[in-house]
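Below is the record:
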Amino acid sequence: MADEREALLPGTIELLVLKTLSLERLHGYAIVREIQRKSAEVLVIEEGSLYPALHRMERRGWIDAEWGASESNRRAKYYSLTKSGRAELKARSASWQRFSDAIAQVLEPRSPAAEAR
């Protein structure tokens, strides 16, 4: 059977990270764990994708970062959402909803009347 984990569409990592950080301030590994947990282990973000995305979002002003101690008392960079990041999350969430609604419409079974056309 194929791996049940799905590849993410471009821009999806940013949306998932923004949503995750809208709930609490987290370090990178905790962001990955939270996304995996909430997706029942279907969505997995590799470090090679996460950290470049975090750096892009920081450069764009969507997130702030500061150093702190992790749960295991190790030095970790903690990320939090900025006001600009909240606005970006709202815009990307609306865009994602339109996109997923459009896909759902295509996937819906057609009615017999529509098929007769």
Notes: The chain has one domain: 12-106.
